[in-house]
């Protein structure tokens, strides 16, 4: 049983269910089936983490304390994947922006309290940040700022210039400007999680800057359908209807 949504978010949930549930599918956190960190299918029942997430942990313990994800997006033809790619393109359709904003609203307005409960931290000690785009795009930041209850609580996080190294866990890719006071807890937001390297590098950079606890919330967990564990997972699970009340932090009931 999932928790009842707040009244001010129910209309958003109704819109997504009525018009987009055919291709939106909740991320599952299932021991022995999917990665405990990012929800990607794992190869063996004894694996608690996928190879990239094991690699991040081996590189550093200063990574995200928890990860929340809304939906799966299968490369390259799935509609959810096209949504995540096209909403930030040069010519996004109004529907792409609306669906992405709705998913962000559903996750952030309904489940920030879940994140704080899991972190054991009071709302007053929280800030938020967005994983910076290496291409300089700011559409995600604008969407999140428009939804934030406290826009002034944004922690500026920037991608370095020429020294940026793609597709690797590298906290030096990101930095908090000198003199910025970082709160105890930071909710770090991204539109998609592919390998998790940018999100985890950003989380590590925030901890280096003074954050004690960092959560990552990503709208979409991108899957490669040619990856054998993913093929098995999709064949066994199918594509269940989207449940807008399911908690992105637990994959089931709210904590």
Top-tier CATH class: Alpha Beta
Number of distinct helices: 7
Q: Write down the overall geometry.
A: globular
- CATH architecture term: 3-Layer(aba) Sandwich
Mean pLDDT: 93
Largest sheet: 4 strands, parallel
Low-confidence stretches are: none
Tally of domains: 1
User: CATH topology, which one?
Assistant: Rossmann fold
- Our measurement of the CA-to-CA distance between the termini, rounded to an integer number of angstroms, reads 12 Å
What is the spatial order of strands in the main beta sheet? 1-6-5-2
The helix/strand series, from N terminus to C terminus, equals HHEHHEHEEEHEH
Outline the structure in words.
This protein is an alpha/beta fold and 255 residues long. 35% of the residues lie in helices and 15% in strands. Helix 1 packs across helix 4 (94-119).
What's the arrangement of secondary structure elements?
Elements: H1 7-20, H2 51-59, E1 66-74, H3 79-86, H4 94-119, E2 126-130, H5 139-147, E3 158-159, E4 174-175, E5 185-193, H6 197-208, E6 213-223, H7 228-237
Parallel strand pairs: 1-6, 2-5, 5-6
Antiparallel strand pairs: 3-4
Helix pairs in contact: 1-4
Labels describing this entry:
15% strand; four-stranded parallel beta sheet; two-stranded antiparallel ribbon; 7 helices; alpha/beta; globular; Rossmann fold
Short description, anyone?
By secondary structure, the chain is an alpha/beta fold. It has 7 helices and 6 strands, in the order ααβααβαβββαβα.
